[in-house]
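S., here's the first fold you wanted:
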Amino acid sequence: MYAPVSVVIACYRCSETIERAVDSVYQQTSRPFEVILVDDFSEDGTLGKLSELRERYPEGWIKIIALKKNSGPGTARNEGWSAASQEYIAFLDSDDSWHPRKIEVQVGWMMSNPKYSMTGHSCRTIKFLDSEGASFDFDSANFRRVGKSPLLSKNYFSTQTVMLRRDLPFRFRAGKRYCEDYLLACEICMAGYLCAYSSLPLANLYKDAYGAGGLSGNLWRMWVGELEVYRFLFSSRKINFSENAFFMFFSFLRFSRRCMVVLFRGKL
């Protein structure tokens, strides 16, 4: 019996990591109904790798969408979202993976709490191979509601943790390459849809969350992307002038702290 979940993975030059990501989906205790791999015009052999993976799994379980131009992860995820057939959609980044019970815990909670439209959870960074086998107290997998103010101060819904209802009238901002997940979460939350978060680390990262390469490693552009989120929310009257000023300043403090952390890691 499959879980009523479509998994969407945006793929861009990820031939070295996508196998791990897809396998973590297949190994779920509650296996999702389908996986949709969206190649964002990689032009490096990634599309061939996706086709190879499709042949390893049950027929029809993996679906592949090949974009004709590079458009960014938000656009790629939107294509997968539109092609999804299940009640719930979960997103995974191509260089990350999931704990085997991620779908079981998350979709189980959402099905038991149908008033909630989006959930997220924490992540952990894998430093050593044997740490992937860590176990957790799943009795503590309580989700708590995230409202407007907490969300403005912190993104509780990073892409690899998000599960949402397919029928939500939202999409990632087309062409936005930084903080597109944060903007989507803010729009959903501030439109009055209920959102919740669990501190249980059900996603695995294989590099530091920032300052370690890739889109998430570009601290400056991430910060600019975050400021763009606040400006958009202000211009669309979802936050007022005082809130915009306060959270933009708070964002600057967070950016400064991250720069210091990366500096002391010796990566600047």
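And the second, which I think is the more interesting of the pair:
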Amino acid sequence: MNNYKHLFFDLDKTLWDFTENTKETFVDLYNIFNLKEYGVSSPFAFHKAYEIHNDKLWDLYRKGEVEKSFLTKERYIRTLKDFGIFDENLAVEFSKKYIELAPNKTKLIDSALDVLNYLYEKYSLHIITNGFNEVQFFKLKNSGLSAYFKTVTTSEDAGYNKPDKRIFIYALQKASAVKSESIMIGDDISVDIMGACEAGIDQVFVNLENKIPKVRATYEIKSLKELMEIF
């Protein structure tokens, strides 16, 4: 029997289905901004190009090498350029509309609510996310997740991004939790698992894509339902 009292969850790709919700948002954006008239073949082609730039810029942001304001606009500037569109104002409008639309998407990872209902009765549940406040809190509310979590720690609030161990320490303090009674649950081996490990917190690697991990987590699962076997 484990001694855990506090379960800390990542949000995107662990509970909130970031991939599918973002795809839906990009279909909306494609139509709203008439990208077909700009020669963009499909929303999926545009989204695929965006993912490459977004991932690179987020990596820089996590390292503190770029500011939030740069990331949120630059990812669209670079994506539009890939399609021969050199319009900074359009990139700005894209950024604003994405932040407006994305949090209203509500698809969750399979069994997320079933698992949370089970865990909620037994543990104190918390969120640690690198996402921006204006997006993450609306995601939680609109997808029916807010009521499950006693605390939500964002990188903006903490002043540090995962995998920096200081965001985990900040989250522990906010939750009045101690390391030995806490565990981090997330899908990103470098950001969630290695970060929590560095902070001295046990981890559950949610390996939905059957990746080969760089390090061994305390636990590894292939579906969220397996959390009910651990806890």
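Why I say that: The two ends are 8 Å apart (CA to CA). DSSP finds ten helices and six strands in the chain.

Talk tomorrow,
H.
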